[in-house]
Records
---
Amino acid sequence: MIRALVERLGSLTAVLFGVSLVSYGFVSLTPGDPAYTILRAQRQSPPSDAEVAAFRAEHGLDEPFVVQYVSWLSEALRGDLGTSYYTSEPVTTLLLESLPNTLELAVAAMAVSLLLAVPTGVASAVHRDTWIDRTSQLVALLGVSMPNFWLGYLLILVCSLWLGLTPAAGSGTLGHLILPAITLGTGLAAVVTRLVRTSMLEVLEAEYVRTARSKGVRERLVVYKHALRNALVPVVTIVGLQFGFVLNGAVIVEVVFQRPGLGTLLVDAVFARDYPIVQGVVLVTAFVFVVTNQLVDLAYVALDPRVDRGGDRA
Amino acid sequence: MGPELVVDDLRVRFRTRSETVDAVDGASFTVEPGAIVGLVGESGSGKSVTARSIVRLESPGEIVDGSIKFDGRELTSADDRTLRRLRGRELAMVFQDPSTTLNPVYTVGEQIAEAIRIRENPGRQPFLAELAAGVSSRLRTRRRRSEVLELMETVGIPQADERIDAYPHQFSGGMCQRVALAMALARRPSLLIADEPTTALDTTTQAAILDRLARLNAERGMGILLISHDLGVVSELCDRVVVMYDGTVVEYGPAESVRSDPEHPYTKALLDCLPHRSEPRSRLPTADWPPADDRPSRSDEPPLQGTVLETDRTAVDGGTTATGERGSPRRDAETAAPGSDRRVDGPIVELEDVAASFRQSDALVDRLLGRDERVPAVNGVSLSLRAGETVGLVGESGCGKSTLVRLTAGLEETTAGEIRLRGERIGDADSRTDDQLADVGVVFQNPTTSLNPKRTVGQTIAEPLFEAGWDESRREDRIEEVLSLVDLPAAYAGRYPRQLSGGQCQRVAIARALALEPSVVLLDEPTAALDVSTQARILNLLADLQADLDLAYLFVSHDLAVVRHIADRVAVMYLGQFVEVGPTNRVLSAPTHPYTQTLLDAIPGNEAEECRQWDREALAGEPPSPTSPPDGCAFHPRCPVASEDCTRVEPPLEAVDGGRTRCLYAGEWRSDDSQRSAGDADATETQLITNSERTEPGVARTGRDGR
Ligand code: SF4
């Protein structure tokens, strides 16, 4: 068990290191001098060469790439991701402020999608080729094809402006969370519904399901106790991977609903070429992504006893 | 006594997109309270569908007519509630393949406990509580636990206390089937419907399960409906037998009279083609019907009604050849004198002290960390195979017999010892020359999975030819040639495997193995997946081919009757080693190793004199795990004649009675068990010396008894 843990921590570190290198590299490769852009934006007029040079010296931008990266990395290891070029606020603080908002949104979206997808997928499989199945397939198709932002605006229009049910923008209350979570969750729900359906169809043919029926288990339990748990094994993997896309989608949805969060932070920083923030956001996203994947592995073990539990079997 | 089951004129129909099939076409029979009734037939006879219809699991079929009455109640029209009640309390069913019939994500304890809960209150089944019951891997309540333990002991699961919280994948096939049986017994059924309950198991395990069923029937008065393709199994256990063919019951009567004096020609033909009833190496009669090419799939077996079955023998006698070339006089003449003019050259294949082991884990980390534990699969095996000779290889699953085939075929690498082909040392397939590759053909067990469904028969056979660099026209000619060798029309080259029956698929597999004119053919359970009548035809074909082409066969089988029929010599394998090698008729009539005797005892329906009837339940213990083999003789935990010494001394393979045997008391235990103790001392001393001379790893092993 300890060995497994060490292995996982090792791979986590390796992935984060790679991500930091790539993100740092890409940011430095982007055309345009951040010093010039930023100073210009601050003064509202083109800065002089001396001012640019001073800015570059202050933020270490005149050093060679490797030196820049190493010094950033060593700071980062101590938890200091640098400061914003604009506001001089520490990046770590900014991240810690927006991360919970985004996680809240992502988790809520996952919950919405699973709550929609699992029962729909199961119903679809159980009532294969009936109107229930066809309707849910059609809805799923719509869900996949509809862009997030469009659904978001649509929901704002209907629920907030016409019906006045929920606040249109901002964050803080549950009411603020509902529309963004639905917006973000439907796309995923559509994917998961199809997955659950396929997986259930296969499992319902399995002989152990027939055994359960022959035992006199009632049909609802045959489906939810004997079949569903087996069917969820492949689903969990995909859902775990999809979490990355949910984080992605959060960027857009946050902008649409003007929710503070990693997404808004990132978009603002990109436009302003506030590189330390961009790097910080990328790093944190990667971190969350890798950690979810580890959690998925754990869920796997819980669902399927055949998965080797880190070598603790003789 | 319990209630009676009456099936009357049952008809079940399958509708597929293209056709409707009457899987059961008017079956009628009765299972009296407490009786054991056997339902026999070949695949496609409708026996399984009939059995399932009784518990109303006939889906995707549909009962279109007839009635099923249990305890006076009509089942064909019963509603779901009543059916659930019946399934939960009265009619329990056990299915064929235990590795797929248990739910992999719940512990066996929970699966048995669930059945108990349903029996106690079939109407309740609270949704959330049931869902929650499956989540934890331990059974919580003590009372339930002890009930489950009791059931596990009833079906003969040793160390039930340690295994109750284990998952099905941690159990062997035999143990899984016992769990399934425990689940059935949990319902205290008055009728148990067992659908091929032992087909997927070793004969030793099968014998134990059958004994268990007989005992349960005697103790509890539980009626049993046993569905099987195996007349031996059925006649051993059952009071009455129902024989089904093409959806109808063709014979129904007391087991004894059906067996000894069958009325219907089909039953007669079925009994005749059983290899253990025939003279060794003779031609087997085959229950034959219109030429095989009319039968692309099992759904349309040819009609029987009204036609008298012709066996091969009668066809030949009468001068008509029902199956084309099958009974040509040339072959007949040759098979008439089996083995008499066999060439006695040097051996073609020799194995010397061959060993192979597998990595326990393929994970890179494990290899890097040097945790490279290897499980021995084959250990110190020596064997030679001559032209025209058949060596039978028998043993329980996991004993290493298939590994030996794979090693000889070059599909696996040896870790020690050498394999020689015509005197030259050969390695794995990659290092063999084209000629060497061509010299060894292989046929695997399941023809439907060993043939690529996307290739035509012709393409399948052409594959090895193509590899060997034959040009197109030569390939075409050869395909036609080998197809005629295996008695398939040349037109079959364009067909796909799904258009062929199981027996025809196996013929194609044999044709592929013969394509490059090998001198050795390795046959890994070539008939295990086939019906008995098909098996008989394939065995005849193999005998013909051997006579014509002077082939050497290494014939792997778990079925001693088949091996007795076809093999000149037998090698019995246990835990990766040969325990007895010798001429077939001697080894299988007067074995010198107790394990061979065990296998003989386990043959269902075997009433021959060589059957000593040791307590089968004890013998059915499972082979110990190869990772930790027992000290001394590997067989001692299961050996009925083991002594103190057997737990310490590892017996060598010694020449005894025309063969070689690995037992301290080789042959002696047969004549007189008491004499043995007198001879004990000397025997042990010599063994000790031989053993210390041979620095075999087995002696130094610190393994403990795995179970
Ligand atoms: S050596 Fe002993 S334990 Fe082994 S087979 Fe012979 S009698 Fe049985």
Note: Residues 532 and 651 of chain B are 38 Å apart (CA to CA).
---
Amino acid sequence: MDFSFNQEQTLLRESVKKLVEKDYGFEARHALLKSDEGFSRAMWKSFAELGWTAIPFSEADGGLGGSPVDTMIVLEELGKGLVLEPFFATVIFAGGCLRRASASVKAKYLSPLINGELLSAVAYAEQDSRFDLFHVGTTAKKDGAGFSLDGKKIAVIAGSAADMLVVSARTSGGVRDKTGVTLFAVDAKSAGVTRTSYRTVDGLRACDVTLQGVKVSADNVIGKEGEGFALLDAVSDEAIIALGAEAMGIMEVLYKSTVAYTKERKQFGVPIGSFQVLQHRMVDQFMEYEQARSMVYWATMMLHKGTGVAKAASALKVQLGKSGRMIGQAAIKNHGGMAMTEELPVSHFFKRMTMIDLMLGNADYHLDRFRTLG
Amino acid sequence: MDLEFSKEELAFRDEVRSFAQQKLPAEIREKVDQGRPLTKEDQVRWQKLLADKGWIAPNWPLQWGGTGWTPTQMYLFDDELGAAGAPPVIPFGLKMVGPVIYTFGSEEQKQRFLPDIVSSNVWWCQGYSEPGSGSDLASLSTRAVRDGDHYVVNGIKAWTTLAQHADWIFCLVRTDPNAKKQQGISFLLIDMKSPGVTVHPVITMEGDHEVNETHFEDVRVPVANRIGEENQGWTYAKYLLTHERTSIANVGAIKRTFARVKREAAKVTSGDGTLLDSPVFARKLADVAIQITALEYTMLRILSQVARGGAPGAESSLLKVRGTEIQQSITELLMEAGGYYSMPFVAEHGKAIGPEFTARAAANYFNYRKVTIYGGSSEVQKNIMSKAVLGL
Ligand SMILES: Cc1cc2nc3c(=O)[nH]c(=O)nc-3n(C[C@H](O)[C@H](O)[C@H](O)COP(=O)(O)OP(=O)(O)OC[C@H]3O[C@@H](n4cnc5c(N)ncnc54)[C@H](O)[C@@H]3O)c2cc1C
């Protein structure tokens, strides 16, 4: 057993940390959040130049062949800065799909993604799907040599800026069948694609996507026709584990900034941190954080080994929901009114943590999934 | 023991119910139901309708517009209006400064201020908290220095709710910096139009403009605007704080928001059915339903004690703590019901991206974190109960 990091990993952490500390101050982030696109393309270029967008991909694909631990390190540090660039959406989630695609799809989309020239997002959720990835009403009908897509996707995180959308659509079967779903790489500017963009409560950008007779060539199928759900399910597990790393960074900031604030803030002539009720609550935060961190490490190692990944991802998601909620709510409570304002970072971390529970299935959903996985 | 209301009480309840059905404007009801903030016009419009009926200030003395209702009637009134989706009245004039003025004010102050509160012609806000004085309110440092017939006021009041609409603010200010903390405080009524008063918006995490910081720079306030004696402000304020606390748990409104979660969840597809068929979600709903019943009957027990002449004591702290926790659970359930559609940011008056109920679901979950902080935080309430009830 060894939970320490090697030298390369320590350097990687330092480099992400440095960028976040230098270029991602609270004010800078706020300005970005309010900007047109909601993030900085120049920043994305730096990410690529530093090699971060290449980490999870094999050397054969033009990547750095990094391990899940490397990805974890990057996301944990990005989480501490509430970084707005679509690293999760593009590199982890869409990238996870592309990693499993044919050589021709990889050449067309994965190479530019790794170089930082292509942004991508996964369009899987639908109005009635709730958290079931296999619930797909969007259809893909054979159309000459290719397909024609019709339907509506919702809450596509980072979809507004994406050059290419990974879309799940049904090539056969009924809306809730686990087979018959196919993943497509769809150029976001294709005729028939309409995006309604919005900000999310945690400061990211997302969109709903309407597809009307969108022509997609057969070459753009990701994985095998009809087997898209299994692929998406596996990628979603990887993505949850990466999201866990982000959440770990966020929870650390939430609890440590609460401790720091209660040492500074005085009422009744004493620091409020001297009140036992607040102390115990912060100890609970600490315990929840450590438990969540253990789960992130464990799930990351399971992913590295490639066994029991689905159960590990669901278990982790349950822990994140529980710990994130406790740590976040306690952070607000212990700060008092100050935590309610936009002016203090704590409310922003709280909002992001709250949304992470809703992403890719909430704690309740994954508790059920964990149970049914046996 | 008898769980039923009397025939007269039930008749009264019906009267309130039909009033709400007939008079509450549909647009306002809808906004309240959807958890959207009201505009000043909405709020004043509804309050004037209540005033026309003579029901705007039920707990006030008859001579100033009160109703002479029993505590049970008062409860039924709040409960029915809450259930009907009527907005709660803005408390600062009607529930806070009004009672202070008719209890401790001079005859002249009563004549001058009370009618405008009852008619909702003047909007009040509350200037107690300061950046350095929250739970420890008595440590406040806004200074008022006597200069002839005036006080000169300097300082900052934090968290002034809806001060952007306010014509007047009631403030606690320090008039004797040398006295013990509670003893050097006075209670002043300040015209927001006075030179030197500035209102600075504070945006809360859900993105709304509900609170402000109000700054006072050499603001001249006539001594005639002081309530009661100089340096006795704390006594008046304490009186007011008990008023604030008893009005915090509105079971009628809680039941309505809970019913709404059920109604919306019944329309959310989940698996082969709706969210209501999901055992996990349904259990959470059931749990909250039980908590609401416990709150309601605790409220009724306190009420019957008051009706028999007892005074509400530390029990009102119980209602505040439990009532606000339940409110928070309800906002959380609604956000959960919204699923991915709880993610879009929708501004105060913006359109929903998904189903209408999702527009403010996350926003209200975030906004409602405040309810266990203000009006005496849960920790402060528990301190009160441990002293007053448990004798610790
Ligand atoms: C949305 C909103 C609207 C408001 N509107 C108004 C308004 O209109 N007018 C107005 O005057 N004020 C208003 N307030 C202020 C409100 O009354 C204060 O926020 C409240 O008194 C708590 O003070 P604080 O925020 O400074 O927190 P603090 O007092 O700093 O408390 C921080 C934490 O310490 C805890 N704590 C403090 N003392 C103790 C203790 N002795 N034992 C155990 N725990 C303790 C608190 O419970 C809290 O968890 C508003 C606040 C909010 C958030």
Note: Residues 339 and 358 of chain B are 9 Å apart (CA to CA).
---
Amino acid sequence: MHDASMKVKQKQPRRYVISQKLDAFFIDMYSLGQFMGRFFRAVFLPPYEFKEIIKQSYAVGVKSLPLITLTGFITGIVFTKQSRPSLSEFGATSWLPSLVAIAIIRALAPLVTGLITAGKVGSNIGAELGSMKVTEQIDAMEVSATNPFKFLVVTRVLATTFMVPLLMLYMALLALAGAFVNVHANEQTSFVSFIENGFHSINFIDIFSSVLKSIVFGFTIGIISCYQGYNTTQGTQGVGRAANTSVVMAMFLIFIEEIVIVQITNWFRP
Amino acid sequence: MIKEGLHIDRTKCVICIRDLHKSFGPNHVLRGIDLDVYQGENVVVLGRSGTGKSVLIKIIAGLLKPDKGTVNVLGNDVTAISYRELEQLRLRIGFSFQNSALYDSMTVRENLEFPLLRNSKHLSRGQVTEAVEKALDAVGLSQTINQWPAELSGGQRKRIGIARTLIMQPAIMLYDEPTAGLDPITSMEINELIKEVQLKFNTSSIIITHDLTCAKITGDRLAVLLDGRFVQEGSFEQVFSSGDERLKSFYDYNFIT
Ligand SMILES: Nc1ncnc2c1ncn2[C@@H]1O[C@H](COP(=O)(O)OP(=O)(O)O)[C@@H](O)[C@H]1O
Ligand SMILES: [Mg+2]
């Protein structure tokens, strides 16, 4: 009996194009693409679910606010503190505000906000939609004649896409505040000269590029976590996996997008 | 207008299924289902776990697409109509899910309001509240109105789930294992509720179960699903006096003989 079944297995043709894992990865990417297509088709068609978009935006903002506040302020202080020794070697501590502002606005604020939101909000959406899926709440919504894709997915993706840029600007502000506190305590720099100094080397492209990055990060977090949650299978175990995969995949993509967008916007710099 | 009592109209077929097939990959679940449910009738679908009972009613509600065959519900071919038409049809179908599927993020009141607020926008605040209270009263759970689903017992969740569908006054009710996981007394209450809904609102229902007490009490007719087909059909007595060996273990387990 046992031998016979082994033989049958060996006779079967090779079923994978590359390997099981890689095939699964590309199939997953393909259905993620389909999911995105479905989003763009649904987002422009009524009903628009404004109330739910506002509710979700509020949830995204409020959930991340304490963490963003803390991280922003501390990032500002620590970054300033750690940069001081290298600048003071050249007697260039007066450049500190300018260096810190560039680092925060160009790189730190978008990236840190993206990563924090991916962890906090991405896991939340993945787990929430995942448990709604496995307990048939999504089916229940569908049979009560509410399009669950619009009500659950479109609203959440829009919420993260709107909120991450706002959170990023808020974080940049707090990080600059942290930097000012540190600079003021050490170099007695006044608020006015901190601002003048700091924003001297910031231009429109810096801010535009950071806002653009945050919009892309926000969209990524929303679409990935909704995709993972909405396609959850295999009960409660699947819910945990959906939450986890949402965070890992969103963070991975955020780094890739960071590199790509920095490259592209650098072409437009004078 | 409520007409209490049993009114089965054998000339009106509300759910007519012909030669229905459904596979998931290599798993050929439904292999040629034929079923008629008449106006005002409760049909029980009996079958072991994994035979495709849930798949069958999900196809009826348009949640899954069949591979082959026709499914006609209230005069609409669910496989052929547009999404908008399907939504309109779904307003007339009540679906009681196996694990109740109450929205965890909403209170009992919000759960019941959800279908109403979204589909009957002309109703005033007062009318909505009145409908919610009436539906809760019909399932005997008025006191739970401000509770969260997580605070309710399994039986209560089931009844709230049924109330949430009754609020839209459906013509058809689909119950997925209404008594699974409940104690005998609570199961009995659910059985009586299902019967009451039929008599009070003259709904037609499909009740999926493997609980023979539930089948006997709620069903006007039984259909036994085995290997993707109905192998027996008729009243409880007809089905279980047929001497079919495949049904014997079912009966023996439920009514120790
Ligand atoms: N969405 C789905 N995708 C893949 N397989 C499914 C799906 N839904 C059900 N199945 C499979 O169909 C079979 C019947 O499932 P189901 O109808 O839930 O059984 P039951 O009779 O216990 O309700 C099972 O083998 C199940 O694995
Ligand atoms: Mg089932």
Note: The domain at 9-255 of chain B is CATH 3.40.50.300 (Rossmann fold).
---
Amino acid sequence: MRKQICFSSGIAAAEVSERSKTKNTYFRFGDTMENSRGAAVKYDSVQKSYDGESLVVKNLNLDIPPGEFLTMLGPSGSGKTTCLMMLAGFEPATHGEIYLNDRPINNVPPHKRGIGMVFQNYALFPHMTVAENLAFPLQVRKVGKAEQQEKVKTALEMVELGAFGNRRPAQLSGGQQQRVAVARALVFDPELVLMDEPLGALDKQLREQMQYEIKHIHENLGVTVVYVTHDQTEALTMSDRVAVFNDGVIQQLSTPDDLYEDPQNSFVAQFIGENNKLNGKVVEVQGEECLVELGDGTKLKADKVNVSSVGDKTTLSLRPERVEFDTHDQMDNLVNGRIEELIYLGDHIRVRMNVAGNSEFIVKVRNRGEKRKLGVGDTVQVGWALNDCKALDAVG
Amino acid sequence: MSDATSNQVLTTQDGKPLKAALARALRREKMRSLLLIAPLLIFVLITFVAPIFDMLFRSVENQIVSETIPRTVVALEEWDAETGEAPGEDVYNALLFDFIIAVENKRHTQLGTRLNYEQTGLSSMFRRTGRRVDDFGETYADQFIDLNEAWKEPVTWVTVMASPSWIEAQKAWASNPTGPEPAFELSPAALDVLPATSDLYGAFAQFVQVEENDSPTEEDPWTPIYKALYQDLSANPNAATAFSGEAATLVGQAAAAVPAFETVSVKELFIDADEDWGSAENWAVIKTFAPTYTSGYFLSAADAQLTPTGVEMKPDDEQIYLFLFYRTLLLSIIITISCLLLGYPIAFLLAALPLRYSNLLLILVLLPFWTSLLVRTSAWKVLLQQQGVINDVLVWTGLISDAGRLVMINNQTGTIIAMTHILLPFMILPLYSVMKTISPSYVRAAKSLGANDWTAFWRVYFPQSIPGIGAGAILVFILAIGYYITPELVGGTSGIFISNRIAFHISSSLNWGLAAALGTLLLVAVLLLFVAYDRIVGIDNVKLG
Ligand SMILES: Nc1ncnc2c1ncn2[C@@H]1O[C@H](COP(=O)(O)OP(=O)(O)OP(=O)(O)O)[C@@H](O)[C@H]1O
Ligand SMILES: [Mg+2]
């Protein structure tokens, strides 16, 4: 089950939280939180440097509305964990302020922030049983014995580990440990839960299952979740919004579909999904459109996204599945290319072509069962719509 | 399916049982690995296991009494210590024979020393008697020689006592002496009718041949042998009939004269040499410690003693070891605890600091290992003595008056301070290596779950560092309990350990049996504590990293 994808680009954050509010409350752990929902988080011009020489996080501004599932996605070393640690209170911000429900928390120690956290290695206390692990946050909050037991039981049932309360973490499988870690981060009804690559250690199948379960829990509880991953599929499947990090800067912050359909720069286009790159120069600008001349003189029409004026160097970005072999004269762009390689993948066929001097040009053709007359070495015409081709900042 | 396969033996392709094939394949591997560890194994066996067993054995071994005075031990079996009377003449007779052999072999002083552990005064009694025992047979020797000058000659004795075949062999050897003289053999006739004389003369002959490298044909016999001959002839007047030739004449003449001999009491001779021989108490000690194995050392080590009436505690003013054991344990526990209190924060710091700084700190922790133990201990003397640095500073700052200088050395305080310092690294290192493996994310997780710094430490960090505490505590405790140099140097009288007494008995009093018993008790105590520790903490809860 996957959440309904909203194709109208730019889903409003308020709308997201509205959805969360109406979720059923079956999984609530305690009465006190009955009508609560997630917390709002705000990073205001946050900067972070560990060594005083380089900035690991450069001027981060980020608004997370209550109840949102926000994912920080980015390559290794891009500063995701650092952002999370500043929010959790384990690293001080070098500059700027972080707000939790409109309250500045820079000077609030971690244990008073009330933020649940799932660590990459789970950090389950090895000397305690699963039940003791779950009871720990309740004990330090001086919750009554009976209520503790009740909540621990509910939490264990939520992650379908009802029978495992007396085991030690070491006696659980990776996936079970992960679920305990999630349950522990949620058992004290935090308004905000942080997860730092919680599924990194699991195999693919288990990871997909857990993605679904975490998403499900989020939808049921309505807490705000800030999730860190470097797996783009994970980010796209689970999140309400994704913040793509690179080099300490958010490259783009938008819904998963926007991220794929409307990348704001070349980094995002490269990082999310598969992508054909064509380098060229802007020769004509017309409103939101522009004409780009490639190295071999081919002229292509493209959506003007990240270029400003005639003469700018640009990289055109084009998704492989948007390229058509069934061309017709109304198409915005039509070019000839030579087929270099055919890869049969069952549901579709990948065709590697040489188009306008780029021999890594990939076209995905849906396998409709009809005998296509494609052969290696053939020169064929391909075409695509103007809107599918984005003129972004130049790379390489 | 499993039924079918479990009943039939699995075989290899050529039909041999799989298990045998596997065992053979592994045997080479095993042999090779055994060869690799063989040097170490042999080294450990020779230098560690064997000495320990030797020590354990020494603590119960007591052959010296039964080996040095065997005849007396046998004779004493009849005697009952309860009567309070010294034993009869026969025991003293046996003692005379044993004693002359022991004296000639110079073993009587060793026996005296051994028995002196049990009863003071026995050592001097043995030594004093040893000087005179050769005269104890004089009366009989004179009378035999008066009867016939021939009894003075060694050759006469050989004629009577030696077997004819030995006499032949000896003569052949004497004409062409290459190699040692043939070993002396008693004649069957003498063995038969003169048992006591044979016994003693045999010992004499062997002594002369082996120890003195001389011949019985040339050495004057010990005077108690005359006493033995007198004894045999009085018991058996017809002894001459067993002999032939010259020997028969000599023995016959002597046997006829013996009833008229003037006699002396051996008992009185001994009492005359040292009146302590007349004390039933001393004889009781000898009888008590006659068996080859004794619990005496262990009893002494536990402040008890073996008396003819059974085991009882020593008088209060002689009790020393139990208290020393108690003090050793107590001080070791105190030292272990202070090592833990001082070492835990340091190890924590080491584990928390970035590698660059922690390495430097670790070198500082290990620095004491690079200086000699003696130097470090002596440094404490300089610091702690009454005219030492610390007292001077305290007086100078006015915290204490000049008259009230603290006594911090040559007592328990000195031992505790110096040993805590010396053993501290043994606590820090295991703690550090365990703490290093505790991921900081646990404490972070605890804090994110709402625990403050102290709760996070106490509920999450500390329990995970317990294996390190266990390892460090065991290491320090076991090292402390056997420590000896430092208490010796800075402990004075109130700060010494049981090991100092063990060392004393090994190097000064030479009572190795007692030292062994004390050592064994110490070993047992440590093992018991170890078992208790296993029960309480669990030995699998001990980790070195
Ligand atoms: N404690 C620290 N001291 C110094 N530099 C640090 C520290 N932690 C992180 N950094 C640096 O900050 C940068 C960002 O690190 P961060 O852990 O936030 O990356 P990340 O996005 O979480 O990467 P990953 O996906 O690999 O976890 C990296 O260059 C890293 O070397
Ligand atoms: Mg990270």
Note: Chain B has a mean pLDDT of 89.
